[in-house]
Amino acid sequence: MGGGWGMVSRWEYYRDLVWVLTERDLKLKYKNHLLGFVWSLLLPFSQALVFYVAFQFIFRVRIENYAFFLLTGLFPWQWFTSGLQVGTMAIVSSAPLIKKTVFPKELVVVTGVLGEALHFLLAQVVLIGLLLAGGVVPAWSWLGLLLLIPLQYLLICGISFGTSALAVFFRDTLWMVNIALNLGFYLTPILYDLDMLPGGWSWLLFLNPMTSFVLLYRKIYLEGIVEWSWLGIAVVYTVVVLVLGFLFFRWLRWRFAEVL
Description:
With 260 residues, the protein is mostly helical. Helix content is 75%, strand content 0%. It has one domain (2-259). It has helices spanning 2-30, 38-58, 66-88, 90-93, 95-100, 106-133, 145-169, 173-186, 209-223, 228-252, 256-259. It starts with a helix and ends with a helix.
């Protein structure tokens, strides 16, 4: 009985620690910032505006509701980018805490990504408001977001476990992550549709784990459909990446305090 209560109290401690660390990260991020959370909205909106003008009026891309097409792809990508950047540096930026306190180091990564997830959730409220104002009809398939959003969170955590462990030993890791993100942006169907690719080549984009996520968000929001084959791909990527990233993190974490 005592062991059971001990386990419950431990989980309560970890839960409280997650919220304390998340609150700390958010306060540090927006300290002395005038607009705060609004900046996380302005970035994808400004990108969408530039891409909309370029691809609608210069390159003449013919995609229906192209503004919504862009936004439903840019918001998930923005979360993936910011979450991975924060997650990659989570251990390094929390060096004093890592060296002085005994607790599961994975929680530092989890809370860093969680803070960016909260931004994404607030952004989805704004996006849904714009979609409704633009005449998009809500569908039951929107409930699929309740599965898709946690899946993306776990995917980002899985990658961040690996990159944050590497960053402890190689501080250039964030630069490599940023380069990969810049390349990945154009290898993800955010600006263009899969149908625009030459026949037989679209499958190559599914080697990028974010392809299935972006397509799923777009399909759910704009067509009211959950594409189960894409969801299956997203689940497989998430499970594989999360397990491998977690094992890699645990393999190296015993040296964190020594190196930091």
